[in-house]
Specification:
4 helices; 91 residues; mainly alpha
Length: 91
């Protein structure tokens, strides 16, 4: 059901990019995109990489960035430094 919410928005060109600052989202898009679409995207990425590699990368990301403020490029750099598969589709 959650996936249908953001697919409905996407098909009508009403969704916003997932890399905006929180105040830049409409209330509906914030809920749908940040809490639903992003979670589904990471589930796809986990399935693509496998549980062990995904968990290893996430642990490294946490160790590297704890108590700091990473951006989307920082997440991408960590994932691409560990994965041998192409991740362009995700980022």
């Amino acid at each position: 059901m959650e996936e249908l919410e953001w697919l409905n928005k996407a098909r009508r060109n009403l969704e916003q990019p997932v890399n905006l600052s929180a105040p830049d989202y409409s209330q509906v898009n914030y809920s749908i995109l940040i809490y639903n679409k992003a979670a589904h995207g990471f589930n796809y990425l986990r399935a693509y990489l496998g549980d062990f590699l995904f968990d290893s990368i996430m642990h490294d990301y946490y160790r590297t960035w704890k108590y700091r403020h990473p951006g989307p490029d920082d997440l991408r750099a960590i994932f691409e430094s560990h994965a041998v598969k192409d991740l362009a589709w995700f980022f």
